[in-house]
Amino acid sequence: MDEKRYLTFALAKGRLAQKTLSLLETVGITCEEMKEKGSRKLIFVNEELGVRFFLSKGPDVPTYVEYGAADIGVVGKDTLLEEGRRVYEVLDLGFGKCRMCVCGPAQAKELLKHHEMIRVASKYPKIAKDYFYNKKHQTVDIIKLNGSVELGPIVGLADVIVDIVETGGTLKENGLEVLEEVCPLSARMIVNQVSMQMQPERIKKLIGALRESVNI
Ligand code: PRP
43 CA distance to ligand 1 centroid (A)? Predict the structure, then answer.
């Protein structure tokens, strides 16, 4: 007898997880256990459908998927670019839309134009490095921060930042602006490469159903 094979989903804790669950519901995948408010549980099962979900920090989602601890993951494109894991990116889920941008005070525009040696603060050093070194061919000093990156130019740690801009509200409130756009971002579905070989029908059927649902 085959041991029961679960399809395991790793979701990034927070807004993306809620939106992912709503999307999965549209294709008949539900998990009542996950809706319990205030629960500190990390793993949730729907025995009937043979699916399990777990919640992790966003940057860990591609790690779980690369190593096969999860078959499928949902995470922002920013995290995928930064982590650079070996996973299949199979679907743009169309939510969590925002932009990765170079931001700073208006006067920093000149520094960018003249390819000066500037300091760049970011939670995404790899994305920042790729943008400045490979796309702009500009040598910069990249400083890794872990959040509230907008502080960088305000307190004189950096000239500009590379960060996510959604509404632009945080920038505006802090006297900063978008100086250049690096790339558009949104939530993506990723799949473990071995899972795709081992359960191709089940996973491809799910991708097909989700693709239709996303396009409605
Ligand atoms: C993100 C990002 C910006 C902000 C952008 O931060 O780093 O700070 O959201 O959103 P807005 O354009 O709608 O203002 P997050 O809230 O994830 O926290 P963090 O600063 O700790 O990374």
Answer: 27
Can you give the residue range of the structural domain that contains 129? 98-183
CA-closest candidate to residue 109, choices 190, 179, 56, 159: 179
Same domain, 10 and 72: yes
> Based on the domain organization, do 168 and 129 belong to the same domain?
yes
Residue 170 near ligand 1, beta carbon < 6 Å: yes
Structural domains of the chain, count: 2
Residue to probe by mutation, ligand 1, list 15, 57, 124, 164, most atoms within 8 Å of CB: 164
Each residue of 87-138: pLDDT tens digit?
A: 999 999 999 999 999 999 999 999 999 888 999 999 999 999 999 999 999 9
- CATH code where residue 130 lies: 3.40.190.10
The closest-lying atom of ligand 1 relative to the alpha carbon of residue 168 is: 12
Residue length, the chain? 216
Please state, in angstroms and as integers, the Cα–Cα distance from residue 32 to each residue in 36, 72, 74, 212, following that order: 7, 19, 19, 24
What three-state secondary structure class fits 113? helix
pTM: 0.93
Does residue 173 have its Cβ closer than 6 Å to ligand 1?
no
Ligand 1 atom with minimal separation from the 123 CA: 22
* Nearest-atom index, ligand 1, CA of 164: 2
Same domain, 19 and 71: yes
Q: Pick the residue whose CA is nearest to atom 3 on ligand 1.
A: 164
